[in-house]
Amino acid sequence: MLAGKRILLIIGGGIAAFKALDLIRRLREDGAQVTPVLTSAGEQFVTPLSVSALAAQKVYRDLFDLNDEAEMGHIELSRAADLVVVAPATADLMAKMAQGLANDLASTLLLATDKKVLLAPAMNVRMWQHAATQRNVATLTGDGILFVGPDEGQMACGEFGPGRMAEPMAIVAAVRTALATGPLKGKHILITSGPTHEPIDPVRYIANRSSGAQGSAIARALLALGAKVTFVTGPVVAALPDGAQIVQVETAAQMHAAVMDALPADAAVFAAAVADWRVVSASDSKIKKDGKGKLPVLEFAENPDILSEVSHLAAARPGLVVGFAAETDDVIANATAKRARKGCDWMLANDVSPETGIMGGSENAVTLLSADGYETWPRMKKDAVAQKLALRIAAELADPKTVLV
Ligand code: CTP
Question: Ligand 1, closest atom to CA 310?
Answer without folding.
Answer: 7
